[in-house]
Amino acid sequence: MFEARITQGAVLKKLVEALKELVTEGNFDVSSTGLQLQAMDSSHVCLVSLALREDGFEHFRCDRNMAMGIHFQNLSKILKCAGNEDTITLKAEDNADQLTLMFESSNQDRISDFDLKLMSIESEHLGIPDQEYSAEIKMPSSEYQRIVRDLTSIGDTVLISATKEGIKFSTSGDVGTANVTLRHNTTPEKPEEQTIIDLKEPVALTFALRYLNNFAKATPLAPVVKLSLTKDLPIVVEYQIGELGAVKFYLAPKIDD
Amino acid sequence: KANQGRLESFFTSL
Questions:
Q1: Contact B3/A125, CB-based, under 8 Å?
Q2: Who contacts A215 (Cβ-Cβ below 8 Å, separation ≥6)?
Q3: How many CB pairs under 8 A join A and B?
Q4: Complex ipTM
Q5: Using the 8-state DSSP alphabet, how is residue A108 labeled?
Q6: How far apart (Å, rounded) are the C-alpha atoms in residues A143 and A171?
Q7: How confident is the model at residue A257 (pLDDT cuts 50, 70, 90)?
Q8: Among candidates A141, A134, A145, which has minimal Cα distance to A253?
């Protein structure tokens, strides 16, 4: 059987809210090491990769590997019934066709359980090579959210260029043009307020703003976001979820004809 | 005008 208990149920709620617009369905692959998900959007332009470690849960048991096919809008409907302070336990028998979600209030005086019907999903996994990136930028996740939201109101695509001057986001549209540059800045005392640019070589790539804006739905999960860029490769937008694991979004670049 | 790349052009299917 599979059983996973997380005291901060709100994390699970935020995670599903971050994913559900981007991917309609996907497999929760559970094993003794934790829970993983790899899912592409319907147009195969972006991919969500989620990895939650077994030791990040208060309790984790998985007797045999399973792929649990989840419809995220449906999971979201159930998780909306959980309180923000609730502890959430996920449970499934081996080869089950349902996932049980149990919500316990913090003072244990309210306990509810919901069964989510599982789906059979043929998922296509992509091999993502571990690699060095030309530029890795850590910045406050709220800053990333603001930049992509602001630029989405001006244009459809953004040119992201990383140089030793900083990281520049540029767009243009019917109303005009916009440029936002962030400089390497380690002045703030709190690490989560710093902008750290680790540059191996200058790089510039163009992306659809709609997706980058969608990734920012993960902002409530983490104070810092990391962007990784290499010429002619998808960008990685990564949020570390405390000690529990990470969610990474990959977006294919726009390519010149 | 730039075309939107698809992930399969960058990553291999397993």
A1: no
A2: A22, A46, A148, A237, A249, A251
A3: 60
A4: 0.93
A5: S
A6: 17
A7: low
A8: A134
